[in-house]
Amino acid sequence: MPEVRLEKVTKTYGKITALRDVSLEIHSGEYLCIVGPSGCGKTTLIKSIAGIVQPDSGETYINGKSVTPLPVEDRGTGYVFQEIALFPHMNVYDNVSYGLMVKGESVDGRRGTVTEMLDMLSMRESSKFLPSELSGGARQKTAIARALASGSTLLLLDEPLGALDFKVRTVIRYELKRLVKGLGLTAVHVTHDQEEALSIADRIIVMKAGRVVEVGPPDELYLNPRNLFTAKFLGEANFFACRVLGLAGKTCRVDVGGTMLSIKRREDLDLKPGEDCVVAIRPEFVKLVHGRRSRANTLQGTVREESFLGDARSYGVETLNGLKAQLKVPASEEEPDIRVGDEVGIMLPEEHMLIYRYPPEGLEKELALE
Amino acid sequence: MRLAKRFGRTRALEDVTFEVKDGEYLCVLGSTGSGKTTLLRLIAGIIKPDEGEIFMDDERVNEVPAEERNAVYVPQTYALFPHMTVLENVMFGPMARQTPAKEASEAAMRVLKLVRLDHRADAFPNELSGGMQQRVALARGLAPGFKLLLLDEPLGALDARLRLELRGELRRLAKESGLTVIHVTHDQEEAMTVADRILVLRMGRVQQHGTPFHVYNRPENIFVANFVGRTNFLEGIIEARNREKSTVNLRGNLSVNVADTSHEDEEDVIVAVREENTLLTSDDPGEGRNVLDGEVTQIYFLGAYIRLEVKLRNGDVVSSLMPTDILLGKFRVSDRVWVSFYPGSALVYDYPTLGLRHELEAY
Amino acid sequence: MAGIIHSFSVLMDNISSKSSAKKLVYAGAVFFLVAFILLPPILGISFKFNLVSDVLNNGELMARAEGAIFWSFAVALTIALFDLVAGLPMAWFIARSSSNWVSVIDALVDIPFVIPTVALGFSTLLFWTGSNSPIVFLGIRVAPGLALILLLHFAFSFPVIVRVMVGELLSYKGVYETAAKTLGARAFTVARTVTLPILRPALIAAFLLAFARSLSETGATIIVAGAFENGPVFIKNAKDAGLEGPMVLVSFTLILASIAVFALIRVLGTRLKIPVRSAYPRQEGALSSRRSVRLRDATTMVIFLLFVLIPSVFITFPAIEAATDGTLGRALSGVGIWSNYWQAMGLSYLIGVIATLINIAAGLPVAILIARRRLGKTLTTLLEAAVNVPIVVPSVALGVSLSFFWRSFSFLPEFWVLIFAHTTITYTYFVQAMAASLEGIPTEMEETARTLGSKPLNVFRRIIVPLTKYSIFSGAILTFTRSVDETGATTAVADQLKTAPVLLVSWVKHTVPATTSDIALGISFLVLTSFASLLVLRLLVYRRR
User: Fold this and answer.
1) % of chain B with per-residue pLDDT over 70
2) Identical fold at C58-246+273-314 and C325-374+412-545?
3) How far is CA C17 from CA B64, B241, C447, in A?
4) What superfamily in CATH does domain C325-374+412-545 come from?
5) Out of B192, B275, B344, whose CB is closest to A309?
6) Domain layout of chain C by residue ranges
7) Which residue, A186, B141, B204, C45, is the most exposed by fewest CB within 10 angstroms?
8) Is residue C483 within a helix (H) or strand (E), and if so which, with residue range?
9) Span B72-100, mean pLDDT?
10) Contact criterion met (CB below 8 Å) for A21 and A211
11) Which site among B11, B62, B67, B89 would you substitute to test the C interface, given the most C Cβ atoms closer than 10 Å to its Cβ?
12) Confidence of residue B9 (pLDDT cuts 50, 70, 90)
């Protein structure tokens, strides 16, 4: 089972730097997801592991061996393309057996492995169909089967579910992970869908503009992101510029638009009083408080927008000191009793608030997705 | 603008009839092949219906060519004219209607300002990012001043995260400009967030037409209940019935009560409960609710929510979706749990003739 | 004035909205196709069909006729095959190699394609048979006849294969090859199991194009044929002898047979299933090695230089000599045979321009019909087949038929018969080029433009034309060049009037007293103008990139 290591890999295309000094490790048997906005370099990254793209500098190791000089056909990595790329002139069976055929296996020798793969993905009955005769989901499964059947233990997946409809995606992604884990493979799955990554990854790598922003398990990256961009990209968040007032024990006090808030202090961030910072809180953690009781970390404001999300309702509240906050409240089946124009209090629980240094290039630029 | 349509058998749509009100934001929701793009193109006048009529403002427009329908079509690929600048693209509509160049240019700049792209007026489409191209396509659609906007998967080409950000803007823009919008999508979350009303299509037929609240809380059939939102489905038979509730016998002799009384005794039914209404507790919650015990088989972290898969005593599998801060760290795989839901949370449907599996599929 | 133009264009725009106006334009174009392009060849033959019986009774003539027809097809099929085998590695080199020589070779490969075939014929003749040739110096002399014809046809069909395959290889989605490589396949295996099977339609198309070119070519073949006869040579000889019967018989057979062979190859080619069953990693790996690739490229270059390029440009030597030995002076002052020459050049260009303009006007609507599949699947396929007829059928046979047809309208001057003949021959090139280019514009663009309020004519003017104008230009240049180059139909049709290439053939055959210097120079002028067209085409293409 391979362990992959990248050391300071860089790749430029003319004026665009797709990968900037990227170093990372992929552990044996793990299901790793790489997420990031368009153009962040995630596809270039797995292409360079596969050898499809040659980095300008840096080293790539698979199982401790340097593969940097090796061409694609010698690297032994299974790749599932975003465009799926099934051979249009071959049926499902031939597509899946291609990897074995190429290694010189006889027609009989291949049969066992190929039928096993097809069974695992429930594609046995479709084995005589051409790609053009299959649905999007079936094509996707065939592409995965083809990569698996070639015998590689490292699977590289480029937006493998991109061609599928919303609903179908949310179901197949678990099947994919189950399959990979069941076979004991290592998978690197690139996606722009952060919810997809959160739901199936063992670890997530967040990238932006050619660099690795943060790495970690889903719950950690979601609940305690160390980087501002991670907080923004994985899920939704409210961001408020603020200034550090003081630090005491496990708490940090900040001034947000004239109001004082208490935040759980971060050990890894050495903030000084007077320093500019940014605090963030996810919409589902902001609580509605009725009445005008003054409580810690509570702001008063007016409801400006409201929308129904099915299992929840989203409210946009503008506070008295000019902050705009989004809340997400689980929906009940009756009509809600909060309307646009109502005056409400919102509470920002200390334990769910996140704090960051103010980004040198400005908040908007740091959070930009394009 | 009111729109009514009646179609007979076309290859893509069958018997589709509905109305859109002036200034309404309608989302047509369906998966690939449901006919939603065909619907849009019929309204735009790009193709003709085999049967049926289309009315705009009470006028029959079946024979009116596309260029005279006053409805702008924005395809999923945006179809920006690559040989023209952003400004020239946006000016195209007004110019095509004989507006003098100077006026057209001013109108175009006004709209570009609305979408915050006035500073890129001289750029060519291929120099812009996906999100920017989408805004140019919108601006181009707004410039001629038509009242009806037809959007085919307007956010489909964009990143998931970007989509989240831009959908609110889409609706805001439409409302500020007083437009009627028909927005086609396969993303039910998107539809729920932006629409005034949703039209759900499946294999060319209308499944339901109503507000997001209505479609979500009172889905008319199993397909809609599954397609919109996350739902658990359990097979059962009506055992007993009184004026307030029915008792359903699930597989393995598990019994639940539901508030629905419209089904007869001995009828085969499907009980549907939303995953967020399927609550999880570590001990018996007692009276008032339906309680089923089982074992946790999977735990999924979804960010704001955690989803647990539970295998009930009778072999059925249900999922429970609950906010992260409530569930985090509370359960582990193979823990024994109690799953419960209120009788009022359950929806009951006739057992489908073609079987449950078939109903759950989009095609 | 501007106001009038403006109102006129508004009027035209509004008219274009009406479906009746649109239908009229398309109907007119299809009518032109049927009435001017398709029917004349079919009917022309039938007018003189009674003459066939004379030939059928003449044993000697029949033997000659059968032989000529047989050899036309035998040569064409063999050549297309050889060219495919030799041309594919060249196409691969141009499309895939990272060598610095690629653009040079790319340009060189085009030369035999662009040079008028008359020039190729004479150049080939000089290279393989002339006393000044290095080959002859080494003791190898290929006499005019079958062998020389094979060498000639190999040279001028070679670029056809390369051109088509380079285009396909460049536009083909490389992701299939990458996918194969990630599954462990070496380069040769990938080519054999993935690339070539996927490109099979292109291979067939290239094969058929080379086949058609060989079958059709007249002028150069006459130059190198000697006493040998294939179809076109036989027809020319029959015409010179005043025997219409044999002309009709052979033309008719050639037309029918070529359509049949084309259809057969097309259908069989796509149906033939060659399953990919096994791979031989070691051997194919060796074939993929750098050394093998270098060997392959070297062999390809040698074949190209020796059999294609040098024979094609060999004429430059006598041409340079002609420029210095006084011939140039005589040529430019129009002395003796040269006055006819310049007349002929003028005629060639005039015909070329008129034929091109007619084709643009009549061909564009048909191209739109094909590209946008407005008539539904079956009718569009039929239309495409109809459009393809003029290049499937040998141009000399087409010419014979056309001349019989149009001459029955005795009031029609020969000039116009020539115009119609050239229009027919070149029609396909323009329509195919335009249809391909139009298919590249997504229909959504037009649809969206219409919903923005733009009438169809406005959509055409402001969207379609700007996006296809390079294709319109290159289609026009292709058509023009082909017309100037044309020898087949012109040979069959012309009595009094001579276009430049036909005139030059008569110079070579010594029916007119002309020295080698005269011929070389005359051909060079023709070549230079073709080169000028090629240059314009290249510049257009590079500007696009």
Assistant:
1) 95
2) yes
3) 10, 65, 13
4) MetI-like (1.10.3720.10)
5) B192
6) 58-246+273-314, 325-374+412-545
7) B204
8) helix C465-485
9) 92
10) yes
11) B67
12) very low
**A/B interface, count of CB pairs below 8 Å:** 108
- With residue A329 as reference, give the H or E element that holds it: strand A324-330
pLDDT for C113-172, tens place per residue? 878 889 999 999 989 988 878 888 888 888 888 999 999 999 989 998 998 899 889 888
Of A4, A70, A67, A74, nearest to A34 (Cα)? A4
For residue B354, the 8-state DSSP code is T
pTM: 0.86
Q: Do B81 and C449 touch (CB under 8 A)?
A: yes
Architecture of domain B3-224 in this structure: 3-Layer(aba) Sandwich (3.40)
CATH class (in words) of the domain with range A236-367: mainly beta
DSSP letters of C122-176? HHHHHHHH-TT-HHHHTT----TTHHHHHHHHHHHHHHHHHHHHHHHHHHS-THH
Q: In the predicted model, is pLDDT for residue B3 greater than 60?
A: no
Cβ-defined contact of B189 to A310 (cutoff 8 Å): yes
Q: Kindly determine whether residue A99 and residue C276, on different chains, have CB atoms separated by under 8 Å.
A: no
> Cβ contact (<8 Å) for C181 and A71?
yes
Whether C232 and C486 have beta carbons less than 8 Å apart is answered as no
Q: CA of B97 to nearest chain A CA: how many angstroms apart?
A: 35
Q: What's the burial of B192, exposed, middle or buried (CB within 10 Å: 0-12/13-18/19+)?
A: buried
In sequence order, which residues have a C-beta less than 8 Å from that of residue C384 and are 6 or more positions away? C370
pLDDT in tens, A32-66: 999 998 889 999 999 999 999 999 999 999 998 99
| CB-defined contacts B:C, below 8 A | 73
Closest CA to C90 of C298, C311, C337, C322: C298
What are the extents of the domains in chain B?
A: 3-224, 230-360
In the predicted model, what is the mean pLDDT of chain A?
A: 89
Name the residue among A362, A363, A354 with its Cα closest to residue A252. Answer: A354
DSSP B290: E
B72 contacts in chain C (CB < 8 Å):
448, 451-452
Strands B3-5 and A154-158 come out as unpaired
**Chain B CB within 8 Å of residue A264 CB:** no
- Model confidence band, residue C355 (pLDDT cutoffs 50, 70, 90): very high
Give me the mean pLDDT over the B332-348 stretch: 90
Q: Confirm if B3 and B71 have CB atoms less than 8 A apart.
A: no
CATH architecture of the domain with residue range A4-230: 3-Layer(aba) Sandwich (3.40)
Structure tokens at A135: 């649905």
Contacts of C200 in chain A (CB under 8 A): 89
Nearest-by-CA chain C residue for B95: C454
Q: What is the CATH number of domain C58-246+273-314?
A: 1.10.3720.10
Q: What is the chain A residue with the closest CA to B322?
A: A330
> Does A235 contact chain B (CB < 8 Å)?
yes
Of A185-189, A291-295, B344-348, C423-427, the range with the lowest mean pLDDT is A291-295
Instruction: Give the model confidence (pLDDT) of C140-155 as tens digits.
Output: 888 888 999 999 999 9
In chain B, positions 53-112, which contact chain C (CB-CB < 8 Å)? 65-75, 77, 79, 81-83, 92-93, 96-98
Mean pLDDT, residues A289-310 taken together? 82
Classify domain B230-360 at the CATH class level: mainly beta
Residue C209 three-state SS: helix
Over the stretch C358-406, which tens digit does the pLDDT of each residue have?
999 999 999 999 998 877 788 888 898 889 888 888 889 888 888 888 8
Residue B5 — very low, low, confident or very high, per pLDDT cuts 50/70/90?
low
